[in-house]
């Protein structure tokens, strides 16, 4: 049995930890924060169209801190917390485990998070320590919520695109073959647990996913409105398209030819057309703002702005959105405990 450690037992973490456990091939250690007591006492209730229902699932181990999880090597260390790179970088959350990871070159780091460039911070940290552990990230097309800290609900479709990241500057030690076989192991485990997993070049998938977040999530958050509202007003509907066109131009400049070919300008209108004009959905960025929690501004917008600068693409709308959300974030962070 291989051991897997999953940090961040929220909606995404709970769903995929459950899928991994269902494979019956792994022992899943989970690190919880606010819901530690609830999970420890009653386990997790799962209500999932994809994975089925379970009234009370107990992970193999439920721990309170990353430090406590450093007692053994893991085949995968999965990060399923929000990507708050400006508040709590991934490497700082993983810090207690970095020595452990350094001693176990076969431990792969897996980031189940939205955004662009979310892998940079942990890859740079690993490189600076001389480690060449495989870094994988996953982009989830799913709508899942954790209610009361101990009931995960997933309705409708679920799809997880996973791929590995080549280290920046391509260090001589990176092995494409090793990264692919590590990725294959993870995909097989998740699939045998019932998840719908695709193995792909994850960068194109991440750009495709961030289109919605960089447009709908940001406009809904700044205006504190729902998806149906930003679609109802012609000016904000047009703004959604214009923002997505900026994202697409950066994406195409960053991606190799085959990836760029998947993201023509027409995708922006496809995204709008696919949305239900009556959707009362509130993006998680807005939900976080309303709850007074920091938002994923660096992952969702900052990453695009950074990449745009690197490739010399002008994105004036996104620059304004980024600046506005940084102001929102400033207030949230100053009044949060993080
Ligand atoms: N939910 C979805 O439908 C969905 C779909 C696609 C992609 N995503 C992406 O998936 C990622 C995770 O989202 P989510 O919806 O699962 O978020 P979430 O429900 O807020 O869960 C995040 C969990 O991580 C925990 N956490 C944060 N920092 C931690 C730390 N240092 N140590 C231990 N636990 C920690 C949080 O604990 P606390 O309760 O104490 O804050 C929370 O339980 C995000 O990048 C999101 O954008 C989500």
UniProtKB/TrEMBL annotation:
Protein name (database record): Uncharacterized protein
This protein's species is: Phlebia brevispora
* Domain of life according to the entry: Eukaryota
